[in-house]
Amino acid sequence: MHATLADVIADTAQNSIEAGARNVRLAIVEDGGKISVTIEDDGKGMDEKTLERAFNPFYTEPGKHDKRRVGLGLPILKQICESTDGAVSLTSKKGVGTRLEYSFSSTHIDLPPMGDLVEAVLMLFNYPGDFDLVFSHRKGAEEYEISRSELADAVGGLETIDGLSLARDFLQSQESALHSID
Prior knowledge:
By secondary structure, the chain is an alpha+beta fold. It is globular and about 45 Å long. Helix content is about 35%, strand content about 25%. The longest helix is centred in the last third of the chain and has 19 residues, at about 160-180. The chain is built from six helices and six strands. Strands 3-4-2-1-5-6 form a six-stranded mixed beta sheet.
């Protein structure tokens, strides 16, 4: 079970990476009492039949998980969205990619806490594979955006403790700047 929104965001973005996407865009917008998340990728996409079953908790893509036949990520996401006056939308085209959009009311009493967004994004940036991930976070009028490739270049790579530490510090500074406007 996901304890925080950061867990949900990481789980849903990780799906894009695992779908063989070369380019993933993850955008979080906090504005007007609403938290919106958009994830777009150029991965393998889904056909109509798979798309229809995506929110079924008793379905997962064949071969995706070695030891289980259920996929709870999207059904749990849908439940969280609907129980917090939000919504979820999934569009996909086989061979083209997928777009997942979801939102929550930021003032709803049942909204899970944001959690450690920096660690979630850092984990996504450090996920193995040949892909680029562009992450943006906007709160009100303030926003920052960074790509995996830009961050890796700036810190000398994400494969070392020093590089990861510098990347964490950068992301934390950007998040702190966004939250200082509260």
